[in-house]
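Field: sequence (string)
Field: structure_tokens (string)

Example rows 1 and 2, in order.
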Amino acid sequence: MSNFLGDVYEPVRASALLSGGEIMEREGMELGRSMVFRDLEDRISVFLVLPREGVFSDSWDERHHAYVFRGHDSVTVESGREKDQLAMYESGRLSENGKFYKAAIAHREGSRKDPLQVQIYEKVASGVWYDKGIFNLVDAVQESEAGRRIFSFTLSPANLSRITDDAHHAERMLSATEKAAIWEQCRGRCVRCGAQEGLRFIPGTHTLECAVCRGEHIGLLG
């Protein structure tokens, strides 16, 4: 379960940071690409926000509560890495971009009642990931960027109806770029005591603090 959708049986953890191994165990598979389409009751889809030439491919619009994720680059047997992000391969098989795009358009046009749910993880450092939470895929477009065609997916937080109760909303919606910069600056340690467990990103000061220094250590998991 996402760190941001805790309940009485699995409370929100003291930290949203995970290792690659924890993600594999949670998702039941090794995630070898940045987009994994799963339209199943017990397994939702996954986006991995990965560095692309030093830039992370996500953004958050606080005013409209909209999260935008750029699609992944396409690789074919015939040509290797393609200039454009493809919706379909030459064989007629949909790419991951195409599967998500199809689901988003179906929801936008009303033929799909419930939006596809997507779990998002952001890469913070080597072997360190951040659980951004579960989002609803509400729209998608194809657009031009630097002379090539790409996909842009729009999502909204699954807990949008109770977002005001999300004490860690500001941390959660920091971009992956900001999280990576804070992690590097603090060297993966609490800025106050040097601890490496129970860490959270503190938006106001752009630092890391552990659960103990935040006063949240009693009864919480790391």
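Row 2 begins here:
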Amino acid sequence: MNKTFSRILELLEINQVKISSHGYDELAEDGILVKDVLANIKEAKILEDYPDYPKGPCVLVLQKDLKGEPIHVIWGLSKNTNFPAVLVTAYRPDPQYWSDDLTRRKK
């Protein structure tokens, strides 16, 4: 499993999570509840890995909300830290920009 995502899961188990202000805005804009994001995190599929992102390592994952609807979430760790897990952003993927299974960006 991906190192960053493994750490994210460990931190979520002990409630060491922070939601960025941008993350809150995006959740509200797409009508996604925090409990939707947290509920199915263990079944998330890693789509993209950004281990060298300037603000700290992060991963884009495909998850399902409590109704089974797809959501994309970027989880990360702040640069030079090992906690808390940070929900950077979350959104409902637009099929116009993603493959039919919502796992790959369209060219």
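free_text_note (row 2): Residues 3-13 form the longest helix (11 residues).
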